[in-house]
Amino acid sequence: MRGSFFWGMVVGAGGALVASIPWETTRPAAKRALRAGLAGYAAGRGAAARFAEDVEDLVAEVAHEMKQTPAPEAASATAATQGAASQEKDAVDGSQSKS
C-alpha cells in the first residue's frame, strides 16, 4: 500500500510538471513519437505478414511432398505386406506344381 501511495505522488508531480510546459512546445515531440510508433507498427505488421506467408508456403510444400512420396513407416509396412503376399503366393504355386 505504501509503494502505491509513493508512485501515485510521483505520477501526480510529473503530471503537474508536464502540465506547466506549454502544449505548443511539446506538441512536435509528441507528433514525432507517434509517427515513429506508427512506422514501427507498420513495419512489424509487414514483417509478421511475410513470416506468415513463408510458413504457409512451407506447410504447403511439405504437404505436397507427403502426397508425392509415402511416409517411411507406410512405405516399409507396404513393402513388408507385399513381401509376405509374394512369399505366400510362391508357397501356393509351389504346392500346386508338386501335385
Largest sheet: none
What ranges have pLDDT less than 50 throughout 5 or more consecutive residues? none
How many helices does DSSP assign?
3
The count of DSSP E runs of length 2 or more, i.e. the number of strands, is 0
Secondary structure category: mainly alpha
Helix fraction, binned, reads over 70%
- The general outline is elongated
Distance between the termini: 100 Å
Radius of gyration: 36 Å
Multimeric status of the protein: single chain
Arithmetic mean of pLDDT: 79
Strand content: under 5%
Q: What's the order of the H and E elements?
A: HHH
How would you characterize the overall build of this protein?
There is one protein chain. The chain is mostly helical. It is 93% helix and 0% strand. The protein has helices spanning 2-20, 23-68, 72-98. The longest helix has 46 residues, at 23-68.
